[in-house]
Amino acid sequence: PSKLSILNTCTPSQLEGLCSFLQLSTCPEPSLVRFCSWLLPLSPALSHTSAAILAQQLFLRRVLALTQPPSRHLMAALTSFCSKYSHPLCRVLVAAVLQGPGEGAEQTKLLCELVEECLEPHSVQLVLSQVLEVPLSEKLLPVLQAVLGRQEVLPPELLDLLVLTLCQQAPAFATSLNFARLVTAVLTVYQSQVS
Q1: In whole angstroms, what is the distance from residue 4 CA to residue 43 CA?
Q2: By CB distance 3.0 to 4.6 Å, which of 9, 47, 51, 63 could disulfide with 85?
Q3: 190 Cβ contact partners less than 8 Å away, ≥ 6 residues apart
Q4: Which positions ≥6 away from 27 have C-beta within 8 Å?
């Protein structure tokens, strides 16, 4: 772990080269867990840019390739990384999952699990703002439901954007039970702020 202080001195391109040299994107998952645990005591902490590069190298390929629930090792590594670098992880992972083609059921479940159990409140807000930047789909409704399940206090502008998006999208989801549950959750959790 003491040797990992080199990560703080690398430029972004050097860090990408180092990750490639170490084959971090394809290392065995138990090694991934160990590597992420070594990052936690690192002082000073990694910069946002360096943490985002590591998140991309360590997790992006694995998460986008999921066709079944993630292994306990992958979840342990994600949870460990999230405990210190949740914001950079969200910037990398959430954006990729939201823009990914097709249903991505396993990726959506993984996002829900991260929102429900791992992310800090400011990262939950980041996930919500990222979801609201793309057209809503049935695939994204469970992610919004997970965000609302946290019952975090949202900044007024983000809550306004959520309500406006739901109002605009309502006709497209007229027969969706998940959408109805989502609207009910918004009205329940934020009833004092929604008129």
Answers
A1: 10
A2: 51
A3: 154, 159
A4: 35
The size of the chain, in residues, is 195
DSSP state of 172: G
| AA identity, residue 58 | L
The label of the residue with tokens 């969200």 reads 90
Q: Shortest CA distance to 85 belongs to which of 120, 131, 125, 38?
A: 120
CA distances from 160 to 3, 26, 185, 190 (A): 47, 42, 15, 11
Position 142, amino acid: P
Contact (CB, 8 A) for 19 and 25:
yes
Domains in the chain, please, with CATH? 1-100 (1.25.40.480), 120-194 (no CATH)
Residue of 159, 90, 153 whose CA lies nearest to 118: 90
d(CA 46, CA 40): 10
